[in-house]
Design brief:
The protein is of the alpha/beta class. The protein is built from 17 helices and 15 strands. Strands 8, 9, 10, 11, 12, 14 and 15 form a seven-stranded mixed beta sheet that branches. A six-stranded mixed beta sheet has the order 1-3-2-4-13-7. Strands 5-6 form a two-stranded antiparallel sheet.
Length: 420
């Protein structure tokens, strides 16, 4: 369904709480005057701007206001805005239960509109339905498929005389090559809380799931724990990388933005990040040629797994005053055109695949793991409550500042898991 209203696009990069609290309303931050309000993760800014521009061409008499905020701010603020009736019409949601703005968390509170009647819902792949549905009802549009791995500059890798490592020992030797070449192998910015999780997710994909693909189910049935699993090895290797000098000199005082700058300016060979980070690096240094590899965590390259899952998804406010228009936007985002536009320059893949999309060569390793069936979901998507992820943020920061050890981290994660 399409409209013929006039579209003016206003993009605001601002504090989420400030921008939304200024827009009152009984149901949402939108008014009923044809204005559609969208909130998206700032890491998806380029992708969302592209989709909005295309929606503009098809809907020339609608006004859209897009507000961007970072992950931590979205997850902490959006639930409160929804409760207060001050939330946007369309907003970023995360799959699973893993944080306060996750799909199942918001759906259980009645905050998400049922999208099952939209055409895109019938085309969501089987292995993706679980992140968009509760029961038989669809509550989110999956926008992209992303991976977590080592994103690196090809030139920086040549500068240190390095090659892509396939085993853990090769990865450690690559760290040494980077240091000898006056660089760090990986910029690490765990001053930004959500960054804390990425390196051990990348390691746990192999140390946990290569031998126990059903680990998440075992956890949910009380048959497995963080402390008694390959999570211990993943955390120990996370610490080992730091002690080996593979990371920034002071990760706890390095932000995400600084880590990106370090790669763009050649101080670091790469960064362990989501695939979409490639756009942030090239936005700063357009001439940089990037590649990506799954982080090896063992001696057998065939065992290496890569976190890969739907990364960005969007829900519609169940109390929106502009629900019809919000549904139209959701349908457009779920179409082949919307999916391809969202992912064309974002270092990601369409969450609803189609034959018209050509993947960025940077994603070669992610595509290979996806085709081989050697990806595992992002770990927090499988956790039963938001407290586990939040505790993970805290514990990794404490681990790197010397205020806890691996045993302490594991015990805290098991306790948070049981609270669900």
């Amino acid at each position: 369904m399409r409209t013929s209203r006039r579209l003016r696009v206003t993009v605001m990069v601002t504090g989420l709480a400030m921008s939304l609290s200024a827009c009152g309303g009984s149901g949402s931050a939108a008014t009923d005057d044809g204005t559609l309000k969208i909130t998206a993760n700032i890491t998806d800014r380029s992708a969302m701007k592209t989709v909005v521009a295309a929606f503009e061409r098809e809907n020339p008499q609608v006004e859209i206001v897009v507000t961007y905020a970072d992950t931590d701010q979205l997850q902490s603020t959006l639930p409160a805005q929804l409760s207060a009736g001050e939330a946007p019409d369309v907003f970023t949601v995360w799959p699973g239960y893993g944080n306060p703005a996750a799909l199942r968390t918001l759906e259980s509170a009645g905050r998400l509109a049922d999208l099952s009647g939209l055409e895109f819902a019938r085309r969501v792949p089987e292995d993706t339905k679980w992140v968009t549905r509760v029961g038989d009802a669809t509550y989110a549009v999956p926008a992209n498929y992303s991976g977590i791995g080592a994103v690196y500059s090809k030139q920086a890798m040549r500068d240190i005389g390095g090659t892509t490592p396939e085993t853990w020992d090769e990865l450690l030797r690559l760290c040494d090559k980077a240091k000898a070449g006056g660089k760090v192998l990986f910029a690490l910015g765990i001053e930004t809380p959500w960054v804390t999780q990425l390196a051990d997710y990348a390691l746990a994909a192999t140390t946990v799931y290569a031998d126990r693909p059903g680990f998440a189910t075992e956890m949910s049935k009380g048959r497995a724990t963080f402390a008694g699993s390959g999570w211990r090895e993943a955390l120990e290797k996370y610490v080992e990388l730091d002690k080996r000098g593979c990371f920034s000199s002071d990760p706890s005082r390095t932000s995400y933005e600084t880590s990106i700058q370090d790669v763009a300016e050649g101080r670091a060979v790469g960064v362990i990040q989501v695939a979409g980070t490639t756009t942030a690096i090239t936005a700063t240094a357009p001439e940089t040629q990037l590649a990506m590899f799954a982080l090896p965590a063992g001696d057998d390259a065939a065992q290496t797994r890569m976190p890969g899952a739907v990364s960005a998804a969007y829900g519609v406010n169940s109390a929106s005053d502009n629900k019809e228009l919000a549904m139209e936007f959701a349908e457009f985002l779920g179409s082949d055109t919307g999916q391809n536009l969202y992912n064309q320059d974002s270092g990601t893949l369409p969450a609803i695949p189609n034959d018209r999309f050509t993947a960025d060569p940077v994603l070669k390793d992610l595509v290979a793991h996806q085709k081989a069936g050697t990806t595992v979901p992002f770990m927090d998507q499988l956790w039963p409550n938001p407290q586990v992820q939040q505790e993970h943020f805290i514990q990794i920061q404490k681990l790197f500042s010397g205020r806890t050890d691996v045993d302490g981290v594991l015990a805290a994660l098991d306790e948070a898991y049981q609270e669900g």
